[in-house]
Design a protein that fits this description.
Elements: H1 3-12, H2 28-41, H3 46-54, H4 65-89, H5 95-104, H6 106-138, H7 146-162, H8 165-195, E1 208-209, H9 221-235, H10 242-247, H11 256-284, E2 298-299, H12 315-323, H13 328-344, H14 346-362, H15 380-396, H16 401-404, H17 410-431, H18 437-500, E3 514-520, H19 525-536, E4 541-548, H20 551-563, E5 570-574, H21 581-594, E6 599-608, H22 612-615, H23 620-629, E7 635-643, H24 647-659, H25 665-668
Parallel strand pairs: 3-4, 3-6, 4-5, 6-7
Antiparallel strand pairs: 1-2
Helix pairs in contact: 2-8, 2-11, 2-13, 2-14, 3-9, 4-9, 4-11, 4-17, 4-18, 5-6, 5-17, 6-7, 6-13, 6-14, 6-15, 6-17, 6-18, 7-14, 7-15, 8-11, 8-13, 9-18, 12-13, 14-15, 17-18, 21-23
Length: about 675
């Protein structure tokens, strides 16, 4: 095994056979951190966005924070209840895409897929950027280098997921559960201190918050409604990630649907509890929080500006520092697990995006490569593609979650709405044929849940679209349109190829003539082997072709050809401009045009070397020539390899790989051959 192979095995682990796929299935305790980390982690930045929006109107608007939190919680519980119907009805892993495709048609399904793909990419970018920003509140060496750290963390997450879903889930379970316990524990302890009258104020409580220009004094009712709507739409970022469980049902252990539905219920209850506890504590502790790019609106109590270089800690960092003022380790535990969970939240997308990509590849809407499993039974190409797109976004927006979040959640609410509409049609269709009273009652109840869910998510979608369109949501919508067009184009290509490859009546007809051409660069062993192989195929006509640049070299080759009495005629193609590929391609075309029902067989002698860097020294012309000839109708290209002594190095590596397997390895499931 070479250096590259050893490095790959160290990073990814040993290969897994296809028969070991069952070993990668997840129990609920691992599935929760794997698929729910996005929704759970969003409570770390959703409150920040709510308070940023409300701060525009000054401190008085913070009175609406807990009401907005309650409405967001209601929407989340509604969506969770709706998706519990989805996982039971469609457990194959297609999720919203399958629901929309089956019940609303192909166009709706591709729309959902485009929305989800964009949302998954944004999930990685927003989560990692937010995690880095939180880390910057406690770690000075991160400040000013957030983009570089975010890109590095995305690469690390990709490497972890390439090892497989189960291994990445096991590695991420501890910080996820630590974050949940820490935030809920902080809420309980904060409530206790509030009841006992010992709840302190946060560090920003003494600051003076100036309203944004145009919002000073009494604001109009319409402006207030619009402001609350923007705060609500930002808080709805907490709903992202709920759909990932419906896409990941196949990764659960049996009974798959039941375990996925239970995980969804746990997700909803825990996320709502955490979100409301943070918002209520922030309001009670006098939090003042503004857009990090607009810190000038925060002033000291005496009206003086804040010190130059003031770094505003995140909402959860301020609350935890105050709540655990008499227990510093508690503060550091919250900050550490928050930063980690925000980064790991991207893991939800790393599990959802590749699975959705594989389903789209199966249906012909994505490149076939996205449907292939890697050495560790993960969809490696999908993981790498997602990581690359997320890195581009992080670099473009400099890892600033406040800017990225304006692009966020539009896609997920598109899928929410189409999924709920699809489920309503699903139950309506089943009710037409179902006669069992008990089943009919269950279907009516499920349809009512999905109908209520559609009403809620449709209202939220309209609010999100109106309040975020000009703030950046148009970019996400444009990306969805582009993804939609690309997927339709890919499907069109595959359909055309399939139609063209259908066997017709004329296809079995044999060619009337085979004209074989052996390419010659000089007279050596590879050339002789290619001539011998071409003779063995018994073509109707066989000739060798040489492209000549100067008369002296050409005459020397022809003289040597005659001296060796090679019984194959040598044809010289003169190239005054020293081109090699063009004369050969043109000659093959002329032969083909002279006999349209015939075939031109071109044999290309090639060296085989053992080291990767030696590949750069040979065969580049042959590769380019093959690339040109492949597009020439009626021309068949055959490479005739000649193994140089150096190629034995490569053969020895392969032999060593085989010898590494010990008796009983296959039975024990240890080494792979």
């Amino acid at each position: 095994m070479g250096v590259g192979g050893i490095s790959k095995r160290i990073i990814l682990g040993r290969k897994l056979r296809s028969s070991q796929l069952g070993e990668t299935l997840l129990p609920k305790r691992i599935a929760l951190p794997v698929f729910a980390s996005d929704a759970l982690s969003s409570v770390a930045y959703a409150p920040d966005e709510v308070f940023i929006m409300l701060s525009v109107a000054g401190t008085a608007a913070y009175a609406f924070s807990w009401k907005i939190g309650l409405v967001v919680a209601l929407v989340m519980l509604t969506v969770v209840a709706s998706y519990r119907q989805n996982v039971h009805a469609y457990p194959s892993g297609g999720g919203d895409y399958e629901v929309a495709t089956v019940n609303l048609g192909q166009t709706a399904g591709v729309t959902v897929a485009a929305a989800l793909l964009v949302d998954y990419v944004l999930t990685v970018a927003v989560s990692v950027s937010s995690g880095v920003q939180n880390a910057g509140s406690a770690l000075g060496f991160v400040q000013g280098h957030e983009t570089e750290w975010a890109v590095g963390l995305v690469a690390l997450l990709a490497a972890m997921n390439l090892r497989g879903v189960r291994e990445s889930g096991s590695a991420f379970a501890f910080p996820t559960y630590g974050f949940m316990c820490g935030v809920i524990g902080m809420g309980i302890y904060g409530a206790y201190r509030g009841v006992t009258g010992t709840l302190p104020k946060v560090e920003s409580a003494h600051l003076h918050l100036q309203p944004a220009p145009g919002y000073g004094g009494h604001i109009g009712q319409i402006a207030l409604i619009f402001l609350l709507a923007r705060a609500f739409s930002s808080g709805c970022a907490a709903l992202t990630g709920v759909e990932a469980i419906s896409n990941g049902v196949p990764a659960f252990r049996k009974p798959k649907s039941k375990n996925a539905a239970t995980t969804l219920l746990l997700l909803g209850g825990i996320a709502v509890t955490m979100l409301l506890s943070i918002i209520i504590l922030a309001r009670e502790m006098g939090l003042k929080y503004v857009d990090p790019n607009d810190l000038s609106r925060l002033r000291e109590a005496n009206g003086a500006p804040l010190p130059k270089g003031y770094d505003q800690p995140t909402v959860i960092a301020q609350i935890s520092r105050a709540v655990f003022s008499n227990f510093t380790p508690g503060f550091y535990f919250i900050v550490a697990t928050t930063g980690i969970i925000l980064v790991l939240a991207a893991n939800t997308a790393f599990n959802g995006f590749p699975v959705l990509g594989s389903i789209l590849a199966r249906d012909g809407f994505a490149p076939r490569q996205l449907g292939s499993r890697g050495d560790r039974l993960a969809y490696s190409n999908g993981i790498l593609f997602l990581a690359a797109l997320a890195m581009v976004l992080i670099i473009a927006f400099r890892a600033q979650p406040t800017k990225l979040i304006q692009l966020y959640i539009v896609g997920v609410f598109v899928s929410f709405n189409l999924s709920q509409l699809g489920m309503i049609r699903h139950w309506t269709r089943l009710l037409k044929t179902e006669r069992n009273p008990g089943e009919r009652r269950r279907m009516y109840r499920s349809r009512a849940i999905n109908t209520f869910g559609l009403a809620m998510t449709a209202v939220v979608f309209v609010i999100v679209l109106l309040t975020k369109f000009l703030a950046g949501a148009w970019i996400a919508i444009l990306a969805m349109v582009i993804f939609f067009a690309i997927m339709k184009g890919i499907r069109g290509h595959y359909d055309r190829v399939e139609e063209e490859l259908v066997v017709g009546d004329e296809d079995p007809i044999m060619p009337t003539r085979v004209h074989a051409v052996v390419l010659v660069s000089k007279l050596h062993k590879p050339t002789m082997r290619a001539i011998a192989f071409a003779k063995a195929t018994r073509p109707n006509l066989l000739e060798a072709v040489y492209v000549g640049f100067d008369q002296e070299t050409t005459d020397k080759l022809m003289e040597e050809w005659d001296q060796r009495r090679i019984d194959v005629p040598l044809k010289v193609l003169y190239s005054p401009y020293r081109e090699i590929i063009r004369p050969i391609v043109q000659y093959a075309i002329e032969i083909r045009e002279a006999n349209p029902r015939g075939v031109v067989a071109v044999y290309i002698p090639e060296y085989v070397v053992g080291r990767w860097w030696e590949q750069l020294l040979h065969n580049q012309t042959a590769l380019r020539l093959k690339g040109r000839l492949l597009f020439t109708p009626g021309v068949m290209v055959t490479s005739v390899p000649y193994q140089l002594r150096g190629s034995e190095i490569g053969k020895e590596r392969e032999d060593w790989e085989l010898l590494r397997s010990r008796p009983g390895d296959v039975r024990r499931g240890g080494r792979d051959r």
